[in-house]
Amino acid sequence: MRLGARLPHITGLHGHRTTRLPAAPPSKRRSLIAACLAHALHDGYTDGLYPFLPIWQTQFGLSYAGLAVVRALYYGTMGGLQLPGAKLVQGLSPRTTLVLSTVIAAAGFVLMAAPLGFAGLCVGLVLAGAGSSLQHPRGSLLVTEAYAPAARGALGVYNFAGDLGKATLPALAALLLPILAWRPVIGFMALLGLGVGCALLALAPRAESIPPSPGSSRGEPARSGFTLLMTIGAFDTATRMGYLLFLPFLIHARGGASPIIGLGLALLFIGGALGKATCSWLGARLGVVGSVIATEAATALLIVATLYLPLTPMLVMLPFLGVALNGTSSVLYGTVPELAPSGDAGRAFALFYTGVIGAGGLAPIAYGAIADHSNQTIGVLAAAATAALIVPMVLGLRQALKR
Q1: What is the pTM of this model?
Q2: CB 83 within 8 Å of CB 369
Q3: Which of 195, 261, 311, 218 is nearest to 53 (CA)?
Q4: Please, which pLDDT band fits residue 400 given cuts at 50, 70 and 90?
Q5: Cβ(105)–Cβ(131) below 8 Å
Q6: How many other CB atoms sit within 10 Å of the CB of residue 218?
Q7: Residues with Cβ within 8 Å of residue 18, at least 6 apart in sequence
């Protein structure tokens, strides 16, 4: 879709129709393209590590829990540095921040690709996670400022770009792994990041960021509603990341080689991208609470189904699982401004990212420990049970959304 083209009416969270997003001037389009390019790369980096997990487990003799800890070095660092990172770069222009975050993340991949053993891999993961932590809050804020006050449609494009990165880089890595050793593939990903950094120098705006005007003050009910929303987002992300920890092994156990693992991940992430639009359709008809109940119930059922299906039917089901697994996040993300404490949407987004990314980094460690002390099937069922727990939790949002 051409970014400057006219978009159709967008249905709001409660079913109200909003105005069309007008054709954006060149400066707005450049801001959106730059943010989308950075988001696609960094989200691709995040999920592009999954094809390497079975290789690292064999080479370094890792248990499931140990593998999850290694994964959390990137994901946990990225989540834990959201708020301090946003404060650190507050005085920098969007152009400088996006380029800096991308170069730091690429440098982490360079370190991972170097023959420095397990210690080099771990330090590289931490450095790459630190770089990616700068991108999410600044990219969201850049798009919000460029398209304010009608930024919802542009933010949807920004989020969709992240899904494209999730669908592309894991598949590309999995296709290269049978041909090349894992370190050269990591090196290729580092070169890709450096190339994106150069592109951002030309695309991202040079002007300093303009702080958004403060929103209306909201009291304790909105704060408690936001806390519940963030908790639901954490559980939703924990389900997704826990299942992704086991998915390569589920495919491998059915005879799928590295290309098939990459295909399975791509199918799941493509379904996740489609889930953005699907959940918007559900939200218009079922509301926030109804759509989250539907997607989480479907997630739990489909995760259980993938435990028992043969390889081909499992691959066929993965896009549908991706729709439910990833689609919920778009509904939750779009609800953040409504429940932002004190009306400060910028800080609310940073807090929300911190909560969900932190949960995504830590929860797989628990699922891995469960699998290590029982078996892989119990670990996957634990992820499905987490999705099911969201159903009663989301009912508590009804009163907060009414207020």
Answers
A1: 0.71
A2: no
A3: 261
A4: confident
A5: yes
A6: 18
A7: 9, 10, 11, 12, 150, 152
